[in-house]
Input
Amino acid sequence: MVNVKINGISVEVEENSTVLQAAKKAGVHIPTLCFLKDLNETGACRVCLVEIKGARALGPACIYPVSEGMEVFTHNKRVLAARKNTVELLLSNHNKDCLSCARNQNCELQKLADDLGIREFKYQGAYRPVTFDDFSDGIVRDTSKCVTCGRCVNACAKIQGLGILNFIDRGFNTKIGPVYNKSLADVNCMQCGQCINVCPTGALHEKEEIHNVINALHDPTKHVIVQTAPAVRASLGEEFGMPIGTRVTGKMVAALKRIGFERVYDTNFGADLTIMEEGTELIERLQNHGTLPMITSCSPGWIRYVEREYPELLGNLSTCKSPHMMLGAIIKSHYAQRKGIDPKDIYVVSIMPCTAKKHEKNREEMKQNGLQDVDAVLTTRECGKLIKMFGLDFEHLRDEQFDEDLFGEYTGAGVIFGASGGVMEAALRTVTEILTGKELDDIEFKAVRGTEGIKEATLTINDQEIKVAVAHSMVLAKPLLEDIKAGKSPYTFIEIMGCPGGCINGGGQSRVIGNIRNGFIDIDWKKERAKALYDEDAIMPKRKSHENKQVQELYENFLGKPGSHKAHELLHTTYEKKDRFNF
Amino acid sequence: MEKLNQSSLLKIKEIVSKHKDEPGPTIMMLHDVQDALGYIPFEAMEEIALATNQSVGEVYGVVTFYAQFTTQPKGKHIINVCIGTACYVKGAQLLLDRILELTHAKVNGTSHDGLFSVDATRCLGACGLAPVAIVDGKVYGDAEKSGLVEKAIQEIIACEGGKQG
Ligand code: SF4
Ligand code: SF4
Ligand code: SF4
Ligand code: FES
Ligand code: FES
Output
């Protein structure tokens, strides 16, 4: 331990601490911009400058190591002036159109300018040439809002191992972009949105579809149906200032009904349906020496990755569409038939924690008779905006229930799809019971839960040992994939999700700001959101997908049985090798 | 994007394997590729990325950081137009615009058919002759009015089989 003084306050901190950590202990908040713990520790932006007694120059608190007897001043005259100057210089080259910016009112740069009391633009500098890239389906890149903090650069490299965004050129001309400053649509980007989630400004955001949805709602010929993914309920509240991990299922449903959707369904129904199809597919492969390990296919970011980086493993992918695409396909066929509505008059909106799903819905494979299974995908953040645009007092809405006709029922197995390990656990609940013909004593497979690292489990079904693994983010998935490629994977079934922690931390969820990521506000956000889902699972009367009565009815009345010809036509898909770069 | 020819590909592979196990190999590989081919083609960035366990984007970042590397192949014929103060005052911009139009190249870029590279340069120290242009090493003075630069370019186009579309 070492003793340091922060603004005259003595604190004792561990040896390898930084000044920033020591200041936290002294109850002093030093503003930061580029710094993200464990992800971006480069000391580049100089916003966190502090004065160290005895040192000539001011130093960056975020990476400055403490030493015995050190005296630090975090808010004296010299420091405040330097910090303000740093931000004023940043702003001199910034496209300051806050009023029409995607980050208006939740921007880390905007907050910083306000916290530092900036009231005039001191430097009217030259502006660099701007790249505005909205060619990809999910992600918009606007370099006029970029502060070249490098957070996205390291997120892409350290979470997905892809290193797509990088610093280009040098000095004043430095910008962030893919190779040749091409569009994200033309490079091997997964569209996962992890770069969006760490960006402190409006330089990276989702491609918004709110206005398409509002137009459909106002079009009298359209029958507009909305479905919400499990993970959304664990994060949407944050858009209204509620604590991370608040489960807002009932309020979300109430809000969507008031906005005017004809039906509000839970994608969990689609999740239960996915388990029936995917479970059957796994049993098939086990019994008929099919390609193993089988790998889950509900994460479209992961699908984009495997099509570009590991095309030799496409045969290992389950052929199942993701849950919301399955429900979309069923709505445009079975629902349309039952209600006597022409499928082309139905408009399906999916509210998803994901930016890659914006791309997924546009895939050619996801169409029947030229009609998309799903017409629009809104992120959790966009859903929050939509609710605000309709003037609803979200926090005080009375809880309401999802619509119950045809697709209203769901089980706990569907809910946990939103957390890493959830699809695996849901599948194991169903597959084990089908294969053994016996009811499970304990349906909770705790070994595959958790938001950090690769998870594994070994179970014995009918004397056969089965090993399974769960990975979330491509850095974690890569070693598993290399093993399969080398023919030495010990696993039968693998769940892979594109984002760390699973959908609860997807690229479309509420942004988790630097202060939380850096531990200034003490919350493990991934754990809290996952807990919201496991809590809902625990209180559900039914917790296994095959017990979902309405799913059973759907098979009886429409699909036949899992894996039937009709099921394949509507609920399964195909994949193909794609070029990594299109130029 | 146009495919690189076989001999250049082999050259790249040779350079990459030569430096692979040295410390800090990226810069050395890029140096040798720039020397051998006159620019850094995409294929070279891909090979280097693979050998050094980086992404293509990361290698591109290095390429653009250092002024000595370029990702544009040089054209067969090089034209420099001085836009220093003296030349500028005497109509260098007009000259440059006409040259760009004739060659179908962009400033500091190469024409699509690979025939011309046009660079706008700083003072060449020949202000007395302003405005000055250099075509394949031959210096043309008073070039805005004389029409000789345009003539030289047209001759090249004619000799190369009228490839300009
Ligand atoms: S990025 Fe932030 S500071 Fe910049 S215009 Fe948008 S809201 Fe304003
Ligand atoms: S969306 Fe994902 S893969 Fe694409 S640049 Fe961002 S972090 Fe990288
Ligand atoms: S895009 Fe965002 S995260 Fe990336 S460098 Fe710019 S401001 Fe930082
Ligand atoms: S240098 Fe410390 S936050 Fe950027
Ligand atoms: S300005 Fe053109 S040669 Fe000096």
